[in-house]
Every structure is written in C-alpha cells, then in structure tokens.
Write a structure and sequence with these properties.
The structure is a homodimer.
Chain A (H helix, E strand, L loop, with lengths): L2 H15 L8 H11 L6 H12 L8 H18 L9 E2 L2 E2 L1 H4 L2 H20 L6 H15 L4 H11 L6 H26 L4 H28 L2 H4 L5 H4 L5 H5 L1 H20 L6 H12 L3
Antiparallel strand pairs in A: 1-2
Helix pairs in contact in A: 1-4, 2-6, 3-4, 3-9, 3-15, 4-6, 4-9, 7-9, 8-9, 9-10, 10-14, 14-15
Chain lengths: ~290, ~290
C-alpha cells in the first residue's frame, strides 16, 4: 500500500466531504476549506488507513472515518490558534484562519468541522450502524473530555507554572496522543481487529503520539518560522515549559527515539508486516517540520 | 405528562451527564456546568420528550437525547456570546461564560459540550444502534452546515446590510428553527412515529421555531435587561435588522400569533391529543423573557 496513493485518496475525499459551496453558506465552507485543504501532513488519517491495511481490511471503508479524524484535528488547530488561546498568526506557512477571515468565521468553521466529522461517519454508506456507533464513540471520547480538550485545558492551566515531566507527559498524552491513538483504534474497529491486535496497535499509537509531540517541542525550539510553518517558538513566547526546555534537546530527542523503537517492536509482534506503519513511525523520528 | 416532572428529569440527567469533576479536568467541567446548569427554559429537550410522549413512546429512551440537544444549544450560546461574535456580557441574568471564566475556557467548554452531545447519544444504553445513528445524523445536520451554524454565518454576513423579510426568515429558520425542528424529529425517531406524524410534527416544529425567534426579536426591543436576562437590545447595538425593527412590533406579534395557531392546527390532526405540545406552543406566544 503506497503512501502517496493513500494521501491522494484522503485529499480527494476531504475535497468531496467539504465541497465548494454556493451562497448562503459560501463563507462557511470557504473558511473551513482554507484550513482543511491547506496542506498538512495528514498523519492521523494516514495512520487510520494504514492500520486497516495492516490488518488486511478494506481501506475503502476507512476513508470517510479518516477524513472525519482530520476534520477534528483541523477544528482543534483553528480554535487553538485563536487570539484567546495560543494567538498564533501562522500555520502551515500561511496566515491562520482568524487572520485570513474574520475571527467569528474561524470559531464557526471550527464548530462546523467538528459537527461535520460526526455527520460524515453517520452518513458513510459503507459502514454498518454498529461500526458507526463505535467509531463515533471513540472519536468523541478521544477528542473530548477524556482526550484532546482535557489536554488543552491542562495545557492552559500549566502556563506560567513549572510543571514536572510527568505533568508534561500527561498534557501530551491527552492533547495530542489521544487523537493519534484514536486513529489506530478506529482502524482496528473498521478492520475487525482482535483484542491482541488492538493492544499492540494502541501501544504503537501511544508511543508515536508522545514521540510526535516531543519532536514538536524540539522543533519549536530549533526551527525557523519558515521551516516549521508556524510562528517561531510560540511556546517560548507564551512562557511554556516543554519537554525540550525542561530536559534539553538531546535528552528529548533520545526519548523520542526510544519511543519510536518501542512502537516498532509492537508492530513486529503483529502477524502481518506493516511497512507503512513502520514508515510513519520513522517519519515522526526524522521529521524536520 | 407533567411539564414540571419532565423538567426535573432533564435537570437531573444534565447534572449526571456533565458531572462535577476532579482535577485535572475540573476547570473544563466547571465551565461547562456554569452554562449548562445555569437555568434556561429547556424548550428543546422539553419538546423532544413531549413529542415522544405525544406518540405514546417511552420517555426514558428520550432523556439522554434531549440532554444532548440542550448541550448543543448551550455550546452555541457560549460561542455566540464570545467577543468576536455577539460580544454579550450577560445571559440568563448572570455574566456570560467568557466573563466568568477565561475566554479560552469558554471556547473549550463549548467545544466539549458539542463533542459530549454526540458521545452521550452513542453511549445511551436504552437505544439500539440504528436509532443512535439516525439521532446523531439529525443532530449533526440540523446544528451544522444545513442548520444552526449556516444560520449564524448568514446572520453575521447580514449585519450592516438591510436584509429583506425573506432573508430574516431564512436566518431564523437556520439559526434557531432547525434545532427546534430537530427536537421533534428526534422525538419521532425515538417513538417510531409514522411519516404522517413526522410531517405534522415537523410543521409544528418549524412554526413554533419561527414564532420563538420573532418573539425574541420583539422582546429584544421591548424588554429590560433584568427581565430578558441578557444585555438589552444587543441586536440594536450591533445595528442588526430584525423582524421587529423591519415590520414593527405589532406586525411581528401578529405573525407569531398566526404561526402558533398553525402549529396547533397541526397538533389537532394527530391521533392523540398532546396537551404538553400545545402548552409549549402557547408558552412561546405568551413568553415575556
């Protein structure tokens, strides 16, 4: 299963699920598409589809759910960038949504993408109702109060404090990790994975999720605005303690490396080889933007 | 079926579905509960449960969905009150959420309530998966780009213009009406209503939804801050054309009256009498806050 091919499936499906629209909703769809289709690594949808492929499932049944996951990720970025949150002006090398559109449109486009994610899964003609309900539950739980939003609140409350490494790991686990874990869990549900497969893939998801965030912390310190595609070191501006500022860049990099090895160990214990999941793990370790 | 009894069921269920929480999520739940449990007329959940009762359905199967609908309504109020949207300081006779908590908490509490609404329906042990998927679809569609959020975008884009009565009705239909219609439609699904019942109840829902918004426009002009429970005439401050400012208060009142009569006509064509749905219609016509 070729990564470039899967990425093209994702881009086409996103374009179809959130199409250009005519009046009177034109502004809403334009704003949503500005952020949703504006590039991005597509890590989460790629992971979901790669998980289904690794379990020999039908990837056609995974595409809409993968896009729903990307909609949820995109909405969280839009709201996270708002002036009252991280107040970021750039993302993916272009102005954030509230800089390119009125701020109200950014709030509403975020709300729309979150809502539309659940509608997309509920409307997926290739899935039975039992599967849809499971997927909606995972997506809501891992992006809500037991996942991403809880992590965002913890993150805000930790600002201007000096959290411990344990606090930072908890924030990462919730704010970023739970949605990455959702990708593999949803993939397991779509492909009817066994309990053992679910456990191994969840370990893989948890490990690469934390590694992803640690490398993000490292990049936030080391990279230029141009390379990273968002304002340089907004964490530093916000006086935020991160893995990289607390332990130093070398220790943080070593930790990310160990997590990626652990994730790949879990993959090796699956029955079928999963070169794409391995490639994704390696790409997180090696990423420079 | 007694209105006060149903209201107590709703309050208890909301309190259970969004409970007091301990750290680390405490601030998220506190903020959500501040708005969700802070009073309110509970029109939408009441309508949903009254619809199920009118069709002789089991109201126990309706309570969680009714609360989910109220969560979606509450999130929309929280985001609508934000400085970049309507910039309202008071609602339900107390400071709006972004005045009582940091603005970031208001954004996230809104996001949480929207997410949690879908989780609540997906987790409802009294409903089968087919019903859950139908309910989630209606809620997402009517609160999203084919409903409430579309109406909010239209509303924003209409500011500082002079819209026609047709434009204003469209905005009302989407911004407010679609979620009220969702209440009766979801009720029909839970009670397995016939197509004819669905049509009659949708007509009822559409009519009282528009009447509700027209009386809101009238109250926005006529009432004091104390009675109405939110900042006086934020529409006037925002230079917004409404039913009441365009046609005058008397014509607007007459229109609301005619809509309520039409809604009650639809009820009379149902097989069973539905005193509570009639009472809700009358309460919209007679409301003074």
């Amino acid at each position: 299963m070729d990564k470039a091919y899967i990425l093209s499936l994702i881009e086409n499906a996103l374009d179809t699920l959130v199409p250009e629209s005519t009046m009177p909703y034109k502004a809403l769809f334009s704003a949503a598409r500005y952020s949703l289709l504006g590039g991005g690594k597509r890590i989460r949808p790629l992971l979901l589809i790669a998980t289904v492929a690794s379990l020999n499932g039908d990837i056609n049944r995974a595409i809409t759910s993968a896009c729903a996951l990307e909609m949820v990720h995109t909405y969280s970025m839009i709201h996270d960038d708002l002036p009252c949150m991280d107040d970021d002006d750039f993302r993916r090398n272009k102005p954030t949504l509230h800089k390119a559109f009125p701020e109200a449109h950014a709030v509403l486009a975020g709300d729309f993408l979150l809502t539309h994610a659940f509608l997309a899964i509920a409307s997926d003609a290739l899935l039975d109702d039992e599967t849809k309900v499971k997927l909606i539950s995972i997506l809501a739980r891992n992006s809500g109060s037991e996942g991403m939003i809880a992590g965002q609140i913890m993150d805000i409350e930790a600002e201007n404090q000096t959290p411990t490494i344990h606090n930072i790991e908890m924030i990462h686990k919730y704010k970023t990790g739970q949605l990455i874990t959702a990708a593999v869990t949803m993939g397991c549900v779509i492909a009817n994975g066994t309990d053992t497969e679910m456990q191994l893939l969840c370990h893989y998801g948890d490990a690469i999720g934390l590694a992803f965030q640690i490398t993000d912390d490292v990049l936030d310190v080391t990279n230029s605005q141009q390379k990273h595609g968002k304002s340089i070191s907004s964490d530093a501006v916000n006086n935020k303690t991160t893995y990289a500022t607390l332990l130093g860049i070398d220790v943080a990099r070593a930790k990310a490396h160990a997590l990626i090895e652990s994730a790949k160990d879990a993959l090796h214990r699956l029955e079928r080889p999963s070169p794409l999941l391995q490639e994704i793990a390696d790409s997180i370790r090696n990423r420079n933007h």
